[in-house]
């Protein structure tokens, strides 16, 4: 078969495929919340900034301390990293005198994996290193499957997966909701130690109910706050309802997350941007699956390329070597 | 300067040692300990020694109203100086219902006589809350209502000190529903007084305040609630010996559990240390060394010095954190990390430039070599 005929055949075949190809892929939409989804409820108004959760997280996950001060005395991570899965940050404004006030106030905020309902890291992972448990919805990481491409690092809208660059055998670090502690009856260490119940562990449905109860209460009204694990041993204590921003972060953002948050300061100020209700994973996968559905677009594109190439090849052949071809 | 002070102090000690019946060294130790409690600079013990040495002891009138005498009991257990030294030699305790020998009309007469003789010079100490409901009929001493007594005695006093939570802010008697209308000394007198809250207060907080008045002729610096700053300037939580456990997230969950036996933080058991201003963790109680205070013994602080905390909030209710501003050691929402220096930017630009140049040269040479090969090789047929 000579070159010209091959190209002709290719173009024809491409056209045929394009004409007779199957239907394009449907938009897939956000994934559904797993039936027994577990998660965390973080309430910024309850957080007292003791960092007990940061210390407990390090201990539970066997992470080394991280230093940001000149003298290496205390674990002082500035952000989550390869060696820190959970960190408490502070928002300050003006004189920073009033807790949970946007003006002249301050507020604490937790930074750790949000355990998205439809995670970008899993969508971006070219292998099966990132997995979402079909039952609990915990987004886990398998270092044996990981190829170190760090697509998950780039894909996450919250900047959660971190790479241990400093290690000779690097891997991704991220919160996995202490799933390794479940078999011993433990749960998320951050929630287990939290003295005020600012970080609460439990089933997502229960957590959302709890959040709705808090949002519905009048500021200053008496309120009972559970601690530790919702549905676990009662550790609740009486307190006073705070003035919340009427927004449960993670309820809709990005197709929903399994860590949901309440605060007295708008979330944009706390480093949690407004995100569309459609997850990146669903839109990018819809796009990709449409383009590559039934290999229609690739073949059509190949046909186009072939046509362009053939045109160029033909004119060159004709001019330089008319008796060939 | 210190030498002069020291000489003065030694002279004073000699004078006093006869009167107090204590050794020179012991007396100076008392003065130094008082100066330390007050947080006074070195040399202040000399001034204290001189003041205490004065022949004329300041008269004190001590009134008891709605209280349990726990404050007086607490004071009885002070060791430096012991109470008998204090009331017989350092001050002149002219009226104190628990401690005075006199009784009945004789005692009331002694009070009146002292007030007459020391008009404008005596110290009035009030222990206990004052009932004001129904005209204040719920507490009477010698047929006179507490509210009248306190007003009468305060009128000509040089200074008024409210000892204990009851006198300072109402304390236990004022707990809701407060049937007798218990009120603090400040509320009854309608003016700010120095308060030494606590249930009971540490005796040295009172002694140091009294000695400060003796030494400098004025009461120590106080906060908005009239509490001396040297004693009530810091939260219990700030100096607590269990603070490290709080920071590390190690909490006792119930009495007698592993954490409790290991001396973990009592915050989850309702410790009110984070909302209570007092110096309990730093000076302890009972002169038996450190660790002898409620939290040291394994019980959460109940916030006895704070109005609206003790006798109001349930003992095991979680405390409010009264941190004024967040400490500096928290990462900000956005932390600047790895700033680009001029040198690194220049180096990067140089590398980029070199790469661009190399690519251009490569492309040119590629074209040349391709052209050369085409020239050299004869056209291929099929």
The radius of gyration over CA of chain A amounts to 26 Å
- Terminal CA distance of chain A reads 11 Å
Side-by-side strand order of the widest sheet of chain A: 9-1-12
CATH architecture of the largest domain in chain A: 2-Layer Sandwich
Brief sketch in words of this structure:
The complex is a heterodimer of chains A (325) and B (382). By secondary structure, chain A is α+β, with helices and mostly antiparallel strands.
What does the model show?
The complex is a heterodimer of chains A (325) and B (382). Chain A has helices at residues 3-20, 52-61, 120-124, 151-155, 189-193, 204-216, 280-292, 296-320, and strands at residues 38-43, 87-92, 98-99, 105-111, 130-132, 139-141, 162-163, 172-173, 199-203, 222-225, 237-240, 259-262. With 325 residues, chain A is α+β, with helices and mostly antiparallel strands. A 3-stranded mixed beta sheet of chain A has the order 9-1-12. Chain A has a 3-stranded mixed beta sheet with strand order 2-4-3, with no helix packed on it. In chain A, helix 1 (3-20) packs antiparallel against helix 8 (296-320). The model of chain A is unreliable at 16-25 (pLDDT under 50). Chain B folds into 3 domains: 1-55, no CATH class; 56-231, NADH:ubiquinone oxidoreductase-like, 20kDa subunit (Rossmann fold, 3-Layer(aba) Sandwich); 234-324, Cytochrome-c3 hydrogenase, C-terminal domain (Cytochrome-c3 Hydrogenase, Chain A, domain 2, Irregular), CATH 4.10.480.10. Helix content of chain B is 43%, strand content 8%. With 382 residues, chain B is of the alpha/beta class. Chain B has helices at 2-21, 24-38, 44-53, 70-76, 83-90, 104-117, 146-155, 164-169, 185-189, 203-216, 229-232, 236-239, 243-247, 258-261, 280-283, 342-376; strands at residues 59-64, 92-96, 123-127, 130-131, 140-141, 144-145, 159-163, 182-183, 194-196. The mean pLDDT of chain B is 84. In chain B, the strands form 3 sheets. Chain B has a 5-stranded parallel beta sheet with strand order 2-1-3-7-9, sandwiched between helices. In chain B, strands 4-8 form a two-stranded antiparallel sheet. The chains are: A alpha+beta (325), B alpha/beta (382). The interface between A and B is large, with 42 and 33 residues.
């Amino acid at each position: 078969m000579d070159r010209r005929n091959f190209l002709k055949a290719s173009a024809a075949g491409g056209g045929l495929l394009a004409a007779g190809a199957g239907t394009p892929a449907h938009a897939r939409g956000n994934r559904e919340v797993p039936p027994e989804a577990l998660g965390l409820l973080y309430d910024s108004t309850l957080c007292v900034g003791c960092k007990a959760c940061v210390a407990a997280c390090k201990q539970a996950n066997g992470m080394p301390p991280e230093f940001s001060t000149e003298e290496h005395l205390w674990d002082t991570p500035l952000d989550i990293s390869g060696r820190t899965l959970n960190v408490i940050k502070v928002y300050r404004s003006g004189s920073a005198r009033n807790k949970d006030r946007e003006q002249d106030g301050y507020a604490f905020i937790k930074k750790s994996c949000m355990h998205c309902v439809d995670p970008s890291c899993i969508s971006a992972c070219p292998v099966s290193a990132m997995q979402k448990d079909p039952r609990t919805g915990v987004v886990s990481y398998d270092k044996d499957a990981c190829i170190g491409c760090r697509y998950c690092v780039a894909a996450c809208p919250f900047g959660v997966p971190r790479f241990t660059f400093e290690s000779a055998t690097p891997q991704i670090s991220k919160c996995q909701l202490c799933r390794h502690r479940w078999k011993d009856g433990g749960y998320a260490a951050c929630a287990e130690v939290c003295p005020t119940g600012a970080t609460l562990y439990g089933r997502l449905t229960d957590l959302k109910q709890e959040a709705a109860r808090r949002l519905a209460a009048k500021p200053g009204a008496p309120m009972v706050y559970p601690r530790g694990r919702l549905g676990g041993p009662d550790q609740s204590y009486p307190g006073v309802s705070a003035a919340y921003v009427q927004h449960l972060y993670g309820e809709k953002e990005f197709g929903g997350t399994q860590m949901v948050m309440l605060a007295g300061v708008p979330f944009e100020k706390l480093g949690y941007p407004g995100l569309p209700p459609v997850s990146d994973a669903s839109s990018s996968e819809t796009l990709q699956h449409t383009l590559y559905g039934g290999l229609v677009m690739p073949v059509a594109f190949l046909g186009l390329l072939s046509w362009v190439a053939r045109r160029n090849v033909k004119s060159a052949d004709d001019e330089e070597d008319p008796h060939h071809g | 300067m210190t030498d002069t002070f020291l000489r003065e102090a030694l002279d004073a000690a000699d004078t006093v040692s006869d009167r107090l019946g204590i050794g020179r060294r012991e007396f100076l130790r008392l003065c130094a300990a008082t100066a330390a409690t007050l947080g006074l600079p070195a040399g202040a013990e000399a001034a204290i020694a001189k003041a205490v040495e004065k022949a004329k002891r300041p008269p004190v009138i001590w009134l008891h109203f709605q209280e349990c005498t726990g404050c007086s009991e607490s004071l009885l257990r002070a060791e430096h100086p012991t109470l008998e030294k204090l009331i017989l030699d350092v001050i002149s305790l002219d009226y104190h219902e628990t401690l005075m020998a006199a009784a009945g009309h004789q005692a009331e007469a002694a009070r009146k006589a002292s007030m007459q003789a020391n008009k404008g010079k005596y110290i009035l100490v009030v222990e206990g809350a004052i009932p004001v409901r129904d005209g204040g009929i719920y507490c009477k001493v010698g047929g006179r209502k507490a509210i009248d007594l306190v007003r009468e005695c305060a009128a000509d006093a040089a200074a008024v000190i409210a000892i204990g939570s009851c006198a300072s802010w109402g304390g236990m008697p004022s707990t809701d529903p407060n049937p007798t209308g218990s009120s603090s000394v400040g509320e009854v007198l309608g003016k700010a007084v120095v308060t030494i809250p606590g249930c009971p207060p540490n005796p040295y907080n009172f002694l140091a305040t009294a000695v400060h008045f003796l030494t400098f002729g004025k009461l120590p610096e106080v906060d908005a609630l009239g509490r001396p700053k040297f004693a009530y300037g810091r939260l219990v939580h700030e100096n607590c010996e269990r603070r490290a456990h709080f920071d590390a997230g190690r909490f006792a969950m119930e009495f007698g559990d592993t954490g409790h036996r290991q001396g973990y933080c009592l915050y989850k058991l309702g410790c009110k240390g984070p909302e209570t201003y007092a110096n309990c963790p730093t000076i302890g109680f009972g002169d038996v060394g450190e660790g002898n205070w409620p939290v040291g013994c394994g019980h959460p602080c109940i916030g006895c010095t704070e109005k609206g905390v003790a006798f109001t909030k349930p003992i095991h209710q979680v405390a409010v954190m009264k941190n004024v501003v967040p400490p500096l050691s928290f990462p900000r929402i956005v932390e600047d990390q790895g700033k680009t220096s001029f040198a690194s930017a220049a180096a990067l630009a140089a590398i980029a430039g070199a790469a661009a140049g190399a690519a251009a040269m490569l492309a040119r040479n590629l074209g040349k070599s391709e052209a050369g090969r085409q020239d050299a090789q004869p056209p291929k047929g099929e």
